[in-house]
TrEMBL record:
The lineage of its organism: Bacteria, Bacillati, Actinomycetota, Actinomycetes, Streptosporangiales. It comes from the Bacteria. This is Uncharacterized protein. The chain crosses the membrane at residues 273-294. Keywords: Coiled coil, Membrane, Transmembrane, Transmembrane helix. Residues 1-13 have a biased composition (Acidic residues). Residues 1-68 are annotated as: Disordered. Residues 181-270 form a coiled coil.
Amino acid sequence: MTAWDLLDDEPEPVPEPPKKASASIWASLDEDEPQPSGEPAPTRSTWQSLDDDEPEPAAPPPAPELTASVLSDGEVLWARADGQSVTLGSGQPLHVPAGVPDGVNGWRRVRILDAATLHAEVLVFPVEQPAAGVADEPAALFAAEPAPSPPLRPPGFPAGEGGDLTAAFEARVRRAEQDHRNAAAAALEDYRRRGDQLERQLREEHDRRSRAAEQRAEAQYHEAVRQVRQEAEQQVRHAQQVAAQNHDLRRGAEQRLQAATTELDKVRGERGVGLAVAAAGWGVALILLIIAIAT
């Protein structure tokens, strides 16, 4: 049988997988499958038939001719090795006469030797050996760890020998009491030192605030004195201005009085002359009247 015979012959019909009896409610509505007379019909609830996920049957592998038509000689691809059987991802088995050389299963790289007959070989994992004399030996780079020394343990305590345990315990108690007294004295000294430091800080803060208050009071006093002096100077200047105005008014009044007096004296003098002239005229007229009457 040649490769062309495989390509020319009609593929053998693949038997269909037997239909699995579906127990879902939809299958019972769509299909009318007669139940065997000897077996009772399976009873399943509606919810159970709707919730169960039944695995679908696996798809059959493609025909060998179809797989051979898409492969080429010398092509390298991945296939699953399980023991001595090698299968492509589509489920098509390959003919590997040499089998798996290293016996490692799983996905392996294979090379197609004859695409028409689906003959292939499993490629071994590439393993390289380092060249001799290129690098140093690991033993020269990493020295061996030194052997651990035996643990240091105190010698045993023989019965009836060694120190007095009661005296050692009492000495330990005395040391603990002395340590407690020293700690209490140190705490008291630290408390006193902190108290003195706090008192000194309070005194310094009080002195600082007192000096600040005195400075503010002195500044306020100087400001008040300056304002009083400024107001007094303003009042003095105002009084001087008022006095100068009064002096000018008095002098003007005196000048006006003097002018009025002079004008009055002048008017009085002119009035006396007029009266004298008028009296003389009246006298002449009276004499003439008397003369006229007498004649």
